[in-house]
Amino acid sequence: MKEHTVTLIPGDGIGPEITEAVVRVFAAAGAPVRWERQIVSSAAVVAGGPLISEEALASIRRNKVALKGPLSTPIGTGHVSLNLTLRKEFQLFANLRPCHTVPGLKTRYEKVDIIVVRENTEGEYSGLEHEVVPGVVESLKVITRAASTRIAEFAFTYAVSQKRRRVSAVHKANIMKKSDGLFLTCCREVAQKHPSIKYDELIIDNCCLQLVSDPSKFDVIVLPNLYGDIVSDLCAGLVGGLGVTPSGNIGETGAIFESVHGTAPDIAGRGIANPTALLRSGCMLLRHLGESPLAQRIESACYQVIAEGAKVTPDLGGRASTMEFADAIIERIGC
Predict the structure, then answer these.
(1) How far is residue 9's CA from residue 316's CA, in Å, rounded to a whole number?
(2) What gap in Å lies between CA 276 and CA 25, rounded to an integer?
(3) Confidence bin at 215 (pLDDT 50/70/90)
(4) How confident is the model at residue 244 (pLDDT cuts 50, 70, 90)?
(5) Phi-psi region of 78 (alpha: psi -120 to 50; beta: other; left: phi over 0)
(6) Which residue from 15, 41, 147, 192 has the least number of CB within 10 angstroms?
(7) Ramachandran angles phi, psi of 281, nearest 5°
(8) Which residues, including other chains, have CB under 8 Å from residue 201's CB and lie 6 or more apart?
(9) DSSP strand pairing (220-223 vs 166-171)
(10) Model pTM greater than 0.85?
(11) Are 215 and 235 in contact (CB under 8 A)?
(12) Beta-sheet pairing, 65-68 with 220-223
């Protein structure tokens, strides 16, 4: 098999621990991946370093693909989000969040299978904020035809490639008639080019209600940035939480796959963090590189370990350490 060089960013908090577990599983599975480790960390920024070093940026540009652990972001103060910085730097315009039921993991719902496609570069996350007068802050929401059309095309193309049936556009155009109205216009135009895919629209609040009432109604959901951020986490809750949900940020010339849960400083260094989300994100990376059969082997082994329940981490109801969980997955891969 062709060897793929992949930038590896361990991240903050529990990031280095779950990253090592993934590296260990990939090595045991014979994944044709050569890791190029780079340090990107909130702690490094606080200590006076750059947001992201030129060495790390050059590595991602060169390899065009990266696997990233969680990065911490100060709330309400401090430096800007490192995650957002990476997305903007590499124009990773599509956040792809598959949310489907994990075999063996008991949740409120069964057979959930939803793909969330979130626009990643504009909307309320454009970062354009200012204080108009003392006590009044204005934050600008930016929606463009170019970005809306691009994310709609991604959603429909992905739906076709995965043999999906429907794409649902989510909006608040009843209130934000111009901005969300433009987003809807672009989605409708793209939908007309894909007659094999059913298309419908939902207001964001109704979408949330419908998701928690009956998630089986949904297939592929495409949303502007803020709504996508919220709905993707809601969907993760339907299938067991952020600890088991993978994610990928994809652009025209590169992709970064990551765990979207937090850095969990309360358990960092204790060796009990659940590596499932990052491992499944790694499997998304393998599929992106054309290694789908290997990705399926690793995921199947992970699901077996979760279903058996004997060697899972405390958040999944077990007593295993991060590495004991990883070793149990390795044993199943070899079966």
Answers:
(1) 25
(2) 11
(3) very high
(4) very high
(5) left
(6) 192
(7) -65, -35
(8) 168, 169, 170, 171, 184, 187
(9) parallel
(10) yes
(11) yes
(12) unpaired
